[in-house]
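Deviation from plan, reported transparently: adenosine-2'-5'-diphosphate complex.
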Amino acid sequence: FAFQPGDTLYPKDENGKFIYHKTDLCATWEAMEACKDAGLAKSIGVSNFNRRQLEMILNKPGLKYKPVSNQVECHPYFTQPKLLEYCRQHDIVIVGYSPLGTSRDESWVNVSSPPLLKDPVLNAIGKKYNKTAAQVALRFGIQRGVVVIPKSFNPQRIRENFQIFDFSLTEKEMKEIEALNKNVRYVELLM
Ligand code: A2P
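Because the crystal trials were delayed, the predicted structure below was used instead.
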């Protein structure tokens, strides 16, 4: 979706309501294709697209480039199994945001869903490999082909988040983690 064009990122009216802008996502996609052709982008993708929206692009007459990626919330409590399968079938990489369950900032996060990194299963599996729950959650992502983009302001944790290539989770552990899915988003995008 788009907001009213202008310098304000999230424009609101006098009643505090967001001001949206009617756009045709297919026309926006064509503009992005032109950016790629102009050498302004190596690859182009989408974010927060569901299957119906992806189909709209993939079935667009005259499609020049498919989206290479779809960036969506993805982690052990929100595993996106159907969307992941659909994207696999169409060679679209899922880029998972909030792979650690967000910073739990109440201004934009649904904090009624429990903190991911306190999860007993993730912590128990981590103990076995001498890894943290964060590292297990990230490893779970990459092992199922999801690109993970964890965020940290802390140098030691940034380093920690890279140290996930020296162990692997068994099929049974992957299934155990998949079973943690609650189908609840932390990031509800209320706007
Ligand atoms: P901090 O910046 O203090 O490290 P997400 O990537 O899911 O949005 O999560 C970001 C949150 O997770 C931030 O609050 C960040 O805090 C915290 N975080 C990042 N890496 C780790 C880690 N390895 N262990 C615990 N918390 C982490």
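The longest helix spans residues 25-37. We consider this an acceptable substitute for the interim report.
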